Model the fold of this input.
Amino acid sequence: TISADTPVYRVDMSERPLISKLLAVPEYKTKYDSYVAKLIEFMSGISAEIDKIDTLIGSYVQKDQQSFYGYDQYLINIGKSTGENTTGYIGLSEYASIRADFLKSSGEQ
Done:
């Protein structure tokens, strides 16, 4: 099982001895945990930030004739699409929410 207490992905902690040794020091573990808590707080509030940015730039994105992606793709990427998302990707707001929930649940174990 992956948890925030194991900050590596697809490798065993034994393959990252420096991380293991650093997190074994109570002061550093506390610091790491505080960073995770800040990340949870940031990601939990990211939907409001996305809304603010969308308010600022959304109309410009919609009017941009030279964009790499269309306005519908923009809406899908920020999680505001009213149509069906057939891209296979989740929007930024949903991703942030899933990550925050994961980090919260990891800390509860």
In short: The radius of gyration is 18 Å.
